[in-house]
Amino acid sequence: LSVNIFQVYMFWELVGVSSFLLIGYYFNKPSAVAASKKAFIVTRFADLGFLIGILIMGFYGGTLDIGLLIEKLTSAQSPEFLSITSASFLGASMLTWGLTLIFMGGAGKSAMFPLHIWLPDAMEGPTPVSALIHAATMVVAGVYLVARLFPVFSMDEAALTIVTYVGAFSALLAAVIACTQTDIKRVLAYSTMSQIGYMMFALGISKNGGEAGLGYMASMFHLFTHAFFKSLLFLGAGSVIHMVHSNEMKDMGGLRKLMPITHAAFLIACLAIAGIPPFAGFFSKEEILTAAFHENKLIYGVALFTAALTSFYMFRLYFNIFWSKDAVAKANHDHGHANKDTHEDDHDHGEGTWSMKLPLLILTACAIGVGFIPFSQFITSDGLALETHIDLVFSIAPVALSIIAILLSANFYKTQNAKSDKAVALFGGFYNAAYKKFYVDELYLFITKKIVFPLIGQPIAWADRNIVDGFMLLLANTTAKISAAIKGLQSGKVQNYALYFFGGVIALSILFIYIWK
Question: Which of 125, 301, 135 is nearest to 225 (CA)?
C-alpha cells in the first residue's frame, strides 16, 4: 500500500524478518534454526538486488514515488524514459537492469529458480504458519511487486522475457520435484513454487491494456484463488499430521474414514489446484493458459505439461494419505476400541477439535465459490474492465490432461501395489535426481564451501586480521610507547617544571639571536 518504493523496501525487509522468526519458531530444534537462517540469508541476497534496482530507478526517474515513477517511465517521450533507456551497461539498458534487479528481489521472496532453495526448509515452521506464508503473504509478495510495477515492466521487453522464462522454468522444475517428495509439507511447498511460477510467467507474457493484458488479470486472479485452496491444503495437512504425528507418506494411508471432514476438504482443494471445473483453480488457471496460448506457444506447452504434473502429484499426495494402506486406519481404529472409555477421545484427537475443522469448512466453501467472482471487471493491467469468457472447446485439453493424470495417479497409489516402484525403477537416475532436488542445494554448498569460503572468505578474513586489525594494533602500540616516553615530563615536581621553563627560555633566546644576527 506504500506509495514510496523505498518505503515498500523497508516493510519488505520486515516481512523477511517475520518469516525468519516464524520458520525458526521451534528454536530448540537445530533443523528449524538452520532453516530460518537459510531463508533469511537467501532472501537478503535477493533483496540486495532489489535495493540496487530501486536506486537505479530512482536515479533515472528522479523520484521514489511509485505513481510518479510509473508516469515518467511509461511515457516514451519523457526525459526520464529517454535517459534510462539510452544509458546502458554490458549491452543492456539501465531500464532492463533496474527492472531485472527488482525482479530478483521478487524472485527471492517468491522462491523462483535459482533462489528457491530456502522454500522446502521453511516447512520446519508450524503448519498454520506454513499456510499463512505460502497462501497469502510472503511467497506471493514477489508476484505482487512485479504486478505493482507492471506498467514500467511492460515498457521493457527484455525484462518481461526474463520474468516469463524464469517463472515457466520454476513452475516446471517445482512440479517435477514435487512428484518425488515423501514429506507432505514439502510436496505442498514445491506446489506453491510451481503455482507462483504460473503467476510470474502470466505477468511476463502480458501487455499493458486491452485483451493483451489478459495475463496480468489471470495472474492476479490465480494469486487470489490460490490463497484459498493452498491454505486449505496446508491446514488439511496439519490436521493429518496432528492425527499420525508424522510428515511422511509412508506413515499414512486409509485415513478417509477416520477423518471425513479433512478428507472431503483436502479432496476439494486437490481438485481446485488441479484445475477441475467448477472449482476455483479451474477459472484462474484457464485464463493463464488462454493468455499463454495467444502470446507464446512454447510457454503454453510448458504450462499444459506442468498442469498435468500438478494433478498427478497432488493426487499422489491425496491417495497416499487417505487411501493406499488401510493398515494405518485399522491400527488407529483398533487403538480407539482398545479402551471404550477413551474411544470418543481418540476419535476427537483424530479429526481434531472444531477449532481445526471450522477453518477447513470455510476455506472449502471459498475453494468452490471464489472462482465465480468476475475478477476481470475490477483487476486489470490498465484499470479498465476486461471482457473474458471460458471457451469450453479450448478448456477440453487441460481438463482432459488433468483427469488422465489423476487416473494415472490413482492407478499407482490408490491401493498398495508395485506399480509405483516399477515407475520409479523406469525413471531411475532422473527420479533420484528429482528426489534430491536436482542437487541444487549441494551445488550451493559446493560453491560456498569450496569457492566462496577458501578463495574469497579466507583471504578477506586474513586481511581483516592482519592488515586492518594489525594497523589498528600498531597505532595503539605506537601511541602507548610515545605516551610512556613522554609521561615522565609530568612528574608533579616544581623544580623539574622550572628546569623545563628555563631550558625553553634559553632555547628561544638562542633561536632569536640566530634569526636576528
Answer: 135
